[in-house]
Fold:
Amino acid sequence: MMEKIKRWSTRKNINAIVFGNGCCLHGDLSNDFHDLFAHSKYTLNMVDSPRQANYLFINGIINPLLLNVLLQVYEDMPDFKIVVALGNCASNAGAFNGYNAMTGVEKYIKVDYYLTGCPVDQRAIEHFMANLDDIIFKKSKENKE
Amino acid sequence: MIPRIGDFRKNSIGSAAYKVMKLMSTSIKTLFLGRIKSSAKNNGHPRGVGLPMLEVNQKNKIICNGCKICERACPSSCIEVKLSHHHEVKMNIDYSRCLSCFVCEQVCPINAITLKARKHYLGGKDKYLVICQEKLVHDEI
Amino acid sequence: MNWTFEYSKEILVREFNRLIEGEVLNDHEGYCTFSIKNKNLHDSLKILKERYQFLKLVDVIAYSSPAVTVTHDEIELVFILERPVDCEIIFLKTSFERNEQVADFSTLWQIGDWYLREIFEFFGLSNTAASNRQLLTHDNVKGFLLRKNDTGEVIKAPTYRNAFKISSAVVPSVNSTQQWFSFGPFHSSLDNQFRILMEIKEDRIGASEIEIGYHHLGLEKKFEETNSHGILHLLHRYKCLSGNTLPILWCKTVEEILQIPITDRIAAIRMLYLEIDRICEHLLTINRMLALTANDVALAYMKDVLRMFGEYMYHLGLSYAGRNPHRFGGFYQDIKRETVVFILQSIGKFERKVRQLENQLTKSIQWIDQLKTNEITSKDAMKYGLEGPNLRACGVKYDLRKNAPYYLYDEVEFEIPLGAYGNAYDRYYVRMHEIYESVKIISQILDNIPSGQYFMQSDHSDMTEKDQLNDSELNFKKYDDYYSNGPKLSTKEHFSRIENARGATGIFIKSMGDLRPYRFKLNGPTYKLLASFQEIIRHDNIKRLPLLLRSFDINIHEVDR
Structure:
């Protein structure tokens, strides 16, 4: 019964932090993102601290130096977290695979969803919102075990 | 616009209401301005970002003849063209490197490769790394 | 002070030859180069700065010299200096062997410290000031990466830098017993860009240190292996808040190397793109500054303005999902008549909305109070190396569009807004008024677009269209050569600049007659800002630090390439 209430409360609220500096979105999630979420059944909250957040959006290319910071942020987040990699740069290094760019973060962090495309398409975000319920359901089942 | 005792000594409801309206002016303005239409639908490009696909003639065979110009012109080098004997062409494209820059479409001398939006490959639980020949041609709905 | 010196180039060349032995080469159009021996480096820099008024150090570039044998390994340095009065540029060349040390020029220019550190970590040349700390690389990097012979290695595992840990023994301390705080890269006002270590004395910032390198990709090494077409398309996607200036700048350098003439129409449309870019960036900085205040009405106005501006960008094909319209010699497609009419009809409404926003902001005393931070005098600003609107907010009238005009900027009327005090309010004010000036330029351009071609083919290869490809094999070969391999760059060193929304961006390229550049360097105005950032934020109140950081408009992708 408590799990049902927990699941219901986490399903509607998106407390998000954005990590990295990339060009898919300017800084905080851009206006298009906010508008898309405003017309759906979710409420999007941009939060400053990882201790209050459930969702982590990674955009931009990750360095070995930046990876250290990302791991600390990941540890600070509470147990129920969903990690989304935005854009080609965060999933693979994209087109900018110089010597210092890491191709993917999977060895250190479990990433739940990849949004590929350079830049990210709006239909992909709608697809992501449609699948969001399933992801949350699976995650809560995993956490139980 | 902080109301003081002198304002209320005037003993008229009108002036008090006027002061209150001035105080609430910012919140009233946001009420009217808050309904800005979302720009998402207006600017939705029908043909903005796409992923490369090979074109097919009437016999369901690919037009591509393997001249490899698109492979050399691609800025992120994500196309790989393999020529086997019997002049068969096999192509692998790495979608996670593709920039959607439309160069391969402009450069191809036969117009054998185009960019179209493919819903299936826009996101998912895995990174789609390399897409092989058969999936490049058929469009899944 | 010697007030009676001549500005002409011939006299400079003659006198310089008398003082310091060296050769003079006059290869480039307008740029004269001096090549000197490395023991005279400090003296010649001092003479050029103090006697001939070359006050600005634009860039310092190092590359391993092309004539290399097994025993002999030399590294060449190129200094680019500029005289702000008449915008004349000089190259100064020296060459060092591996064992020698570079003379310390950070006494003349404060930015020199960072250049010396970069030269050490990428090439291995030490310097007399012994500033050896890592700037862009980290502990997992082995070898000197930008040399042509040795290829280094990068271990891809999470690291940190040992030299920047916070313990009072390791961080260079200024005689104080206060505590050091780390304002780390994950913070909303920093936009996850860099890290500040600072010492706080009762609400004021004392000494500080900056750590960068969190977004270093190794772009220059990658560009040495791609041809010029690839670089063009990659730079179009290397936006990160700056849309069109980098592809236009690259097209400009390549066209000046290959000497492709440009019609007036191409120049006018490129100016249009640059001004739209400038408006976009200024609006985004002001938007970020507004997000920290609690002014709801202003935020709503700002959202409206941004939505309207987004429509302009969509019609011009400049939104994020658009293709790259820039090519070497013009554009891929011509500009449409409907977009011109649409923009001209609605640009008055756009300006009125921006004025509405400005009126709303100047009414609120809270906004003006929040932005009254420390003031920077104009002499200090030139010493720190500020550029762009940050410099104009301190009262120095220096703009590349007026002092050294390129394209058609001398035929267009506009003014340059200046600030008086150099605090954060002035930086906001200058940016706001530059939007109005850009709107003026856009309306003047769109009223009188000159007619002509929108694409000029380069002379040495008759480009064939797709219809003529089947006519002969030679046509196909030329088509193949041009599009797969790119244009062949002649043996040259070239440097060209453009005025960005943040200052003067420049690209230096050295090519050896090949398809690929031998050395490519991107120079951004934020580099010099961060190099002297320690002095700028000293004695500032820490409550105002987030707004102060956002008022400077820092873009880390010009610093960590």
Remarks:
- Residues 210 and 533 of chain C are 8 Å apart (CA to CA).
- The first strand of chain C starts at residue 22 and ends at 25.
- DSSP finds 18 helices and 15 strands in chain C.
- The two ends of chain C are 40 Å apart (CA to CA).
